[in-house]
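Acylglycerol kinase, mitochondrial
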Amino acid sequence: MAKVLAALRNHWKKSTFGACLLGWGGHWLYGRHCDNLLRRAACQEAEAYGNELIPATMPLKKATVFLNPAACKGKARNLFEKNAAPILHLSGLDVTVVKTDYEGQAKKLLELMENTDLIIIAGGDGTVQEVITGLLRRADEAAFSKIPIGFIPLGKTCTLSHTLYPESTNQVQHITNATLAILKGETVPLDVLQIKGEKEQPVFAVSSLRWGSYRDAGVKVSKYWYLGPLKTKAAHFFSTLKEWPQKHQVALMYVGPTERPPEEPEEKPSRPPLYVRLYRRLRLYWSSPKKIPQEVTPEDWEELKLSTIELSIATRNRQLDLTRTEDFMDICIEADTVSKGQFVHRGSQKMRDPHTCPEGSQCIQASRCILQLPEGTEGSFGIDNEEYEAMPVEVKLLPRKLRFFCDPRMREQMLRAAVQ
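Structure:
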């Protein structure tokens, strides 16, 4: 024992390195063990759903998974196959996995998709945006938009996961919780933005449209990876050296919030017998007077000419209120009178929370709006973190258009917050 201690003392550098390596290895192995326990518990819970008896005449529910293998720097496929796929297969669903090979393929595949009971999106914000755009471009979108959608967060940015699932620092737990939420069947309605240019087909988003200097600088952050934790501040600082002040001119026309109609019941009442339907039609034909067409009130448009450093149009999906009586989207127009120091500081805040609307900004609630950009305007829109060429567009809110699966705990939390 004395010889061992003497050897460790004489070679203290090697001993310190070995101790650190041993500690790191033990911590890594313990983390792997904990992840395997989480996977096992999730699979046992999914197996309980798969063991439920169903009538012999009832077919299995079909689930179509749109997987983006390139998400999370190419790790999405492995994350899905290790953490989500076993749960889906054990649950008794008839699962079809569709892997996308290139950007925009999901939109085309949605046009050819046949009937399915569930749509599951496995990827990040870009995959969600592609799938819902392909879904809502279909000729029969009125019927297909009623199909519930599940979201398995596998991408670098997963904005929807903050609304649908509890926060978790463990990636395996986050993915398994999201997959189990699909099996539990609780859904919430989400708003959708329809963004249409003059000639292009409409694009749809569940989060936001951003246009301005903070977005442009945020896209370049990855170029300064070699600066480590300073890369965000560096990207915004170098942006001020190229052009300052950074102002964006835009003419904005908008219509205010609209009243929310009562939600239709999910279960339709049974159809009455034939003689009852005939009696009702005859009674309406002979007794009811001819309806006088009502005058349609024109929409009250307001117009603003703005100079801003950034403009964003966002849904209320992040602050989901299931009991609100009006439908609207938030338009944040940030003042262009900021110093370079404020720009760098706010840029770091915007990277953490892109929907931050700082003090001094003009906030508008609208159900529709039109952005008129000056001729020759350069730059890009960020639509759900996907880049599109900046052009004049009309943005329309489609309230409660899609239903997404969510964790039952999050739904209870939303309802409790609405009551308070």
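The domain at 208-260+298-400 is CATH 2.60.200.40 (Tumour Suppressor Smad4).
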